Amino acid sequence: MTLVGFMQAGNVTVYSGSWRYPSADLGFLTMDYYTRIGKVLEEGKFDCVFFDDRLAMPGVYGDSVAEAVRYGARPVKLDLTAVLGGIIGATSRIGVGATYSTTYYQPYHVARTFATLDHLSGGRAAWNVVTSVNDSEAQNFGLSAAMDHDRRYDKADEFLQTVSALWDSWGDGALIMDKETGEFADPAKVHEINHKGEWFSVRGPLTVPRTPQGRPVILQAGSSGRGREFAAAWADMVFTGDPGLEVAQQHYREQKEQIAASGRNPDDVKILPMAYVVGGETQAIAEEKERLFLDAYVHPVASLALLSELLNYDFAKHDLDDVVTDEMMAASSGIRGLSMGVRKHLGREVTVRDLAAHRATLLQGPRFVGTATAVADQMEEWFNSGGCDGFVLAATHLPGAFEEFVRMVVPELQRRGVFRREYTGTTLREHLGIARPESQ
Length: 440
Prior knowledge:
This protein has 16 helices and 13 strands. The protein is of the alpha/beta class.
C-alpha cells in the first residue's frame, strides 16, 4: 500500500476549519512546523509528503479577498521550494513533493528546481503537475481570466515534453571530475535540446546533471477526460477524488486501461484516492471527533470563498438555502459535476449550503472513521478490492491527524502485511517500486 501525506504550506489543510481545532499547531510560518510533520510521516514509513499550492488568495467570492482573509479560507500560501528544502534537511528517506503550475511557470525553471531537489534529497523529489484553473491566479500573472480547459492541457503536454528533455540533457556518467587531467565532464554526454513548439522555445541543456531518480516522480490529479488522458501519458502517481468504493473501482479500471493504451505499464502507475482518517481509542470517540469536524469549526462563508475560487463562480449572489438550479450549473461545468455528486450522496435536491459543506468539511473523498482496527479494515477493503494502490491522506488538523495515524493505524496495517515496516530503498522510485527511466 502506497501512503502519501497531503499538505498545504499555509494556515489550513484541505479542511478549511483545521486552524480552529483546539490542538492545531498555528506555527505554519516557521520551519519547525513543516520539519516536525515530515519527521512524523517518515517515522510512519510514508512513501512521500507533497504540498498543494495556489498562486492567489481566493478572490472570486464577492469579487474580493476580504472574506477569505477574515475567516482564514486559505489566505496564506508559502513558496514551496524553501519548505521542501527544510524537510529534506530534517529527513533521510521520505519522498518530498511540490505543486508547480504548467500554466504560469516556465519549463526550464521547473526542470532546474526539481532536478536540484532530487539531487539534494538523494533521489526523493516529486512534482505535482497542475494546470491552473482560477481567474484570481491568472490576474496575478498579467491575464484577466484563466485559459480554456483543453488548451491548458495542450500546453501542459508540451511543458512535460520540454522538461523531460531537459532532465535527459545530461546523460548518465557525464560527470568525470578528474582533478589530474582537468576533465570535468564529457561533452558528448551533454546535449542541447533545441525545443521549438507552439508554447515554448528552449535551447538547453539544463545546468543540473541527471538526477539520482533519472527524473523526479510525477503526480497528477486530472479528473476530466482530458486530465485522465494527460495522467495516463505522464503520471507515476494519479491523485483521485472518488467519493465511494464502487466509483473508485470503476475509475481504477478505466485509468489503468488508459495507461496501457498509452503504451505504458499500468503496474508502474499508482492510483491514489484522497482520504481522511478520523481515529479514536473507541468508535464513539472517533465519531464524536468527526461530528466536531463536520459541525463546529467551519464557517460557511469560508467554504463558499473556496468554492467560488474552485469553480470560478461568485456564490455571494446566492443565499445559503438557495437550491442549485440548471442556470447555476450551466454557468460552470464544475458546479454541475459537484452538485450531481453531492445530490447522489445526499439523495435529494442540493442547496448552496450543501455545496459549501461539501467543499469545507470532509465529504469530497472517502472518510475512514473509527478505531485503528476499523480504519485499517476500511483501507484494506479499498486496497484489496481493486479500488486503489494506496491513499493520499489529508489531515483534519495538524500535526495531530498525522501523529494519531502513525501511532494508531500504521502498526495495524503493518501487522496485516499491507504496509512496509521499514524502507528498503533510498529513493522515492524505490519506495514506489517503479524503475529509474533510461535517458532519452
